[in-house]
Amino acid sequence: MAAGSARIVRYILFAFFFIAVLYFISHSSYDGAGLSPESFGVGKGSSVGGKGSNHDQTSSNPIGSSPGSPSTSHQDLGEAPMAMTPADAGWDNLLGTAPGPRMNATFVTLARNSDVWEIARSIRQVEDRFNRRYNYDWVFLNDKPFDATFKKVTSSLVSGKTHYGEIPKEHWSFPEWIDQDKAKKVREDMAQRKIIYGDSVSYRHMCRFESGFFFRQPLMMNYEWYWRVEPSIELFCDIHYDPFRYMAENKKKYSFVLSLYEYVETIPTLWDSTKKFIKNFPEHIAEGNSMGFLSDDGGESYNHCHFWSNFEVGNLNWLRSKPYLDYFESLDKDGGFFYERWGDAPVHSIAAGLLLKKEEIHFFNDIAYYHVPFTHCPTGEKTRLELGCHCNPKDNFDWKGYSCTSRFFETNGLEKPEGYENQQD
């Protein structure tokens, strides 16, 4: 009797061992594109688990220092498949912490203390649809000190670490070469013509800051990738994979979900300044660029197409590169941020279109997004059902006459999704 019981126990132990071996084998292969840890800087400044807050001011956080989150081993990079389609293992696993490495990335938001409840809504959207599984950090920037309420509310919602920085005055003021009387007359004229934000000084500081300085803030120097989030946005679909990692794996440097034509009255000489830059810095213009997206006549004029920058996922090292900084500084010296009302969206878009190769810009069709008044809702019922979307496809802006997304597809030789004709004007 004792011998029989021992034999049964041995069989049970052997069965458990055999199942464990099968499980290990089935979960140790990676069929997707490999990652290069030397290129992506994994493990610096990202939170891979646990919730925390870090109320740093930019002045107290040294450039290049890590926010103190745990790092990811390089070995993990080759052993962590990422589910990109419903056919991939792990697609339906949207609970708990997502497996695999984390990129050196952060969300970033420019906000005022009065924006606390609007940004709280945005954070809840991002966390519920994506970040509760990935726990990436969040950097908040303000030209004034953040108050206790803003910090308390936002840090309670973010699953990663939160960081708070005050923008230095030199990044949120008129540069010394700007003629204040001329700039004032421009604002008065735009106010009379009822041009949106035409009379706003703070809006101009914001556009200049987002164009040339947000990526150089000390807190942002800890990171390689960013995802910009504005107050009161909405995400309509589950995000099953890591967009930061997708960008890194596929060598993308800039991305968007909405594109449209800029107000002509706000940028009358922006393209003239751009052509001057092209003439002065021909070495910065990338071969195989996206001039066809920006111009209908080979660069003689600008068609006003731009990526809507209130959503963007991008590479910070590109923005800190000499080509981009030379472009920004050339525009800044021309004064158009104040003598006209140049927005950061056309500045980022023209820079990406000229300084990057076409294939380095990505359209995230599966990140459904709303920022008043436009909606990106994935084309195709099958896609929306697979992603658990709650957007109305009739609201999709992609294929309307005022959208430039169709032009992006044509410039890049991409096939438009099935059913796009039904969403045109």
TrEMBL record:
Q: Name one GO cellular component term.
A: membrane
Q: Which residues cross the membrane?
A: 12-30
Pfam families for the chain: Glyco_transf_15 (PF01793)
Bias category Low complexity: which stretches?
Answer: 58-73
Q: Where is this region: Disordered?
A: 44-82
At the top level, the lineage of the source is: Eukaryota
Name this protein carries in UniProt: Alpha-1,2 mannosyltransferase KTR1
